[in-house]
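User: Hi! I'm working on a homework problem where we have to compare a predicted structure to a textbook description. Could you give me the structure for the chain below?
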Amino acid sequence: MENLAPANGRFLTPVWIGVHDGTFDVFDSGSPASAELERLAEDGSVAPLSGLFDGSAAGTVQSTVFGPTIPPIAPGESSTITLAVDAGLATSRYLSFASMVIPSNDAFVGNGGPLAHEIIDGGGNFIDQQIMVMGSQVWDTGSEVNDETPANTAFFGQAAPDTGVEEGGNVALHGGFNAPGGGGILDDAMFSGADFTAGGYQVMRITITELALKPTEVTVTVENLAPASGTFLTPVWVGIHDGTFDVFKQGDPASAELERLAEDGNTGPLDTLFGGSSAGDWQATIASGGAIPPFAPGEMNSTTILIEGSLPTSRYLSYASMAIPSNDAFVGNGDPKAFQIFDHNGDFIGGQMIVMGSQVWDAGTEVNDEAPANTAFFG
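Assistant: Happy to help. Predicted structure tokens:
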């Protein structure tokens, strides 16, 4: 994704992309914008659109492309992600995208025709291509009046999302920002080059290239090394990612997701948090395989996966498990780059991680009173 705007041009919010079977329709010109598109076009939030895609049967592969320095993609910046798609699936044939043009009231770019960008043909062959988006292809959701008042305009002074004068219109091509001299966006020196209606104005370029994938079979083994009558471990959450997924930071409050794991051994919230991030595509919860899901002292179990080592999202491994019984004790890596499993060439590194008793963490969310009524797996 490249933001082709000139200096002092407009930014693009993180770009949502989805790969599907040709039935996922982001919008229709001349019709009202969906509530999900409205949230993206007014506030830059991709979460509602992502949820809509998840709930459809159109596809299973989607992601959000962030800028290299800040989440929005600034003029001249570019970002690259790699997605694993199965060329044999009908849900892998077409690509759709959407991003808010900022600052604006409700301007965005995206493809209304779900069949506009075929990336895999009917024979399973990949189609390398570039998608150029010009200023004449910027859309207006028609959901908010384009007054360019800072208090109503996202990324221009708006203090809270979903703020602005309701318009109740339909999606249509955008007429451009207010003319200079009217106190709008183009009068701000930071956006003096943001007039996307200027002749030949280029907004963005999307380049889609096929990579040759060589999946590696990786076995992840968990072993409880505690002595007899020692500590148990709840089923261990493991995630493989690009080095940006942070389970916790020492000295900071634990996230709500980590709290549930450290107090109750519940990996579900952490699983959901990871799934909603763009950090990685593979995660699992490894149970003991014994009579009970927790790992008793001396127990071990493994899971084997196929993973593409050349993908940026395959380089690092993070883990987390509750030490039981306890109030909120856990083990895990706070440094997301502590355990590299593939190098930058996609070659497997592997190795062993020994966790010592001195590396048991306290989430700090619950008093360590060890009273049976308050202590998980103790009463």
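For your comparison, note the following. Residues 42 and 106 are 4 Å apart (CA to CA). The two ends are 54 Å apart (CA to CA). Good luck with the assignment!
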